[in-house]
Amino acid sequence: MSRFSHPNLLTLLGFCAPEVDITGVNSIMFEERCLVYPLMVNGSLEDRLVCKDQSQPLSWETRTHILKQVISAIKYLHTFEKKAFIHRDIKSANVLLDEHCLAKIGDFGLVRAGKSGVTTGIPGETDNPMGTPIYMSIEAVRGDISAKMDVFSFGVVILEVLSGIIASGDNKVGAIVISPDGASMIDVDPKAGDWPEELCSSLFQLATICFGSKQERPTSTQVYSELSNIVDFWLEGVAV
Q1: What 3-state DSSP class applies to 120?
Q2: pLDDT tens digits, residue range 106-132?
Q3: Which of the four pLDDT bands, split at 50, 70 and 90, describes residue 36?
Q4: Residue 27 has what DSSP assignment?
Q5: CA distance 163 to 206
Q6: What is the domain count for the chain?
Q7: Which of 47, 89, 150, 189 is catalytic?
Q8: Could you tell me if residue 140 is inside a domain?
Q9: Is residue 26 helix, strand or coil?
Q10: Within a domain: 34
Q11: Which residues form a coiled coil (predicted)?
């Protein structure tokens, strides 16, 4: 993961790996393992959406900027060195925020390289999709792993950002994820301020497009382009 360099991906600063005393004198194996990352003082996007520890709510402007940052990082992974690196666990809990609320995608434990964004290209990988179920597309649950599964997951994050509700199988967000057909809109989070109605509609529509079948679902590049247009229209010159 140290090869990746993107402002919205969590940077690996260092690591500690197990070591063995090869002299045979002590024959001790040090089993401690750790990865060192920058401190993300604002916690995760999930934490901030639910105002964990009485943290201040994120404004709709900040939330919208965060969405663009997240899809920018996903697009980068999917087009890195002409391969698709699939994160496989995109969710608000894995979007971390620094002191300026700049988003950084973390938790790369499930990332796999694919072939042109079609599949992971790793034998046996399709039999073990991993990930977090409510954020996973139907085909991913069945073992058909591709970059399109990250796009589906991003659609869930859009709904969470709009509503301030973390997706689960027994709430409004989860219900739309499971059955998006016929859903017209979701109640937006009033803690974010006065959302522009047309912005909410555009984001909601983009989310539902991300829930389409694998064949109809857009690529991360297409989603990034559409979201960039939305952000540029509504937030041009707006500081967060």
Answers
A1: coil
A2: 887 666 776 544 444 333 344 455 689
A3: confident
A4: -
A5: 15
A6: 1
A7: 89
A8: yes
A9: coil
A10: no
A11: none
